[in-house]
Amino acid sequence: MGLNAKDLIRLLLLSKSQSLYIYDLELLKSRFASITMDKPDNVSFLFPVKAFPHCKLLELVSEYFDGFDVSNENEFNLVKDCINDDHVCWSSAPYDTSYPGFSYNKLFVDGVSSQRFNLDSFLGQQSRFGLDLEQGITSSAIHMHLGFQNNTKDSILKCAEYIEKKCRNSIVTEINLGGGFDFSSMSEMQDCVLDVSDILSDYKIYFEPGNWVTQGCGAIIGRILGVLKAGNDFKVTTSVSALGHLRWSQSIELSLKGLLGVKTKYERLQLFGPTCSESDIIADLYDGESSLNLGDFIIIKGLSSYSYAWRCDFNGIKAPDLVFI
Ligand SMILES: Cc1ncc(COP(=O)(O)O)c(C=O)c1O
């Protein structure tokens, strides 16, 4: 069906809700297939459950990926029915999660079977996760989530070379490089994976891309709840909340669907979410034309999957449901 405005509007009306996340299954499938296609033998892809905690999505992922990155028992429960003995589940929790009910024969646990490190001293940054790699390796499986969505081909290759030096003559056999992919194209990602596979050819390598994998495959649609015009300034309130429904979506594509109104020039058009917070701002536009009226539609593409993962009912505004088309 695709993410065209007519279909998105129809789905919102059918749902009888104010806002709805909509993801295109065919698009997701083709991305999962391209990401995992022709990967080198020593490379595995794990999908981080936290990036898109939805059973249907995770079931689809399990057909393409080699397993999952799980933070805890709750995330493990979301995937336990769609994994088999060939899938790997790698725990990224910094504490021992091997309590009853949370066990799987391929599970690695930080601090028990795997150690999580950061590369802060090499990269000159302060990351959220892990011990300093300089502290010494005591496990055969190590994990580094390079985070912050800024891992280009160059930065990943530099890190892989550094890790290779650190792991020489150590007990390490498995290296998990985490997610945070920021490639400009699928082929750049594939080239990078091939190069890392060469640099770390003596090891089994894991990648855990989350957000980048589903980027561009979804949208959120909502209604216009109010339009206040003061001269050439418009203040428009929408059912989509920047705070509650768009968290971590850093490069959104906005489309405003005025259905019946006459186009009017504006000097400034501010788009607000429906919470009582002044910071609930979706966009601040200058010098354009708009025909928006009450009941019209707002469509936002370019979502981060974390917007769905972090969605909340803040200020009594119902978190939108998600449908796949
Ligand atoms: C351990 C670990 N792996 C992978 C990811 C996925 O990162 P991204 O969605 O940016 O690719 C995260 C995200 O926080 C993470 O904590």
Low-pLDDT residue intervals, each spanning 5 or more residues: none
The termini sit apart by: 7 Å
Main sheet makeup: 8 strands, mixed
Mean of pLDDT:
91
- CATH H-tier superfamily of the largest domain: Alanine racemase
Number of strands: 16
> For this entry, what is the oligomeric state of its chains?
single chain
Shape field? elongated
Q: Determine the structural class based on helices, strands and strand pairing.
A: alpha/beta
Please write out the topology.
Blueprint: H1 5-15, E1 19-23, H2 25-36, E2 43-48, H3 55-64, E3 67-70, H4 73-79, E4 88-91, E5 114-118, H5 120-123, E6 131-132, E7 141-143, H6 153-167, E8 174-176, H7 186-199, E9 204-207, H8 211-214, E10 218-230, E11 233-238, H9 242-245, E12 253-257, E13 264-272, E14 281-290, E15 297-301, H10 305-309, E16 321-324
Parallel strand pairs: 1-16, 2-3, 2-9, 3-4, 5-6, 5-7, 7-8, 8-9, 11-13
Antiparallel strand pairs: 1-10, 10-11, 10-15, 12-15, 13-14
The structure holds pyridoxal-5'-phosphate.
Condensed summary:
The protein has 325 residues and is an alpha/beta fold. 26% of the residues lie in helices and 27% in strands.
Explain the overall architecture.
The protein has 325 residues and is α/β, with parallel strands linked by helices. It folds into two domains: 5-22 and 217-324, Lyase, Ornithine Decarboxylase, Chain A, domain 1 (Beta Barrel), CATH 2.40.37.10; 26-214, Alanine racemase (TIM Barrel, Alpha-Beta Barrel). The chain contains ten helices and 16 strands. It has helices spanning 5-15, 25-36, 55-64, 73-79, 120-123, 153-167, 186-199, 211-214, 242-245, 305-309; strands at residues 19-23, 43-48, 67-70, 88-91, 114-118, 131-132, 141-143, 174-176, 204-207, 218-230, 233-238, 253-257, 264-272, 281-290, 297-301, 321-324. The strands form two sheets. Strands 1, 10, 11, 12, 13, 14, 15 and 16 form an eight-stranded mixed beta sheet that branches. Strand 10 (218-230) and strand 11 (233-238) form a beta hairpin. 39% of the residues are buried. The mean pLDDT is 91. Pyridoxal-5'-phosphate binds next to helix 8.
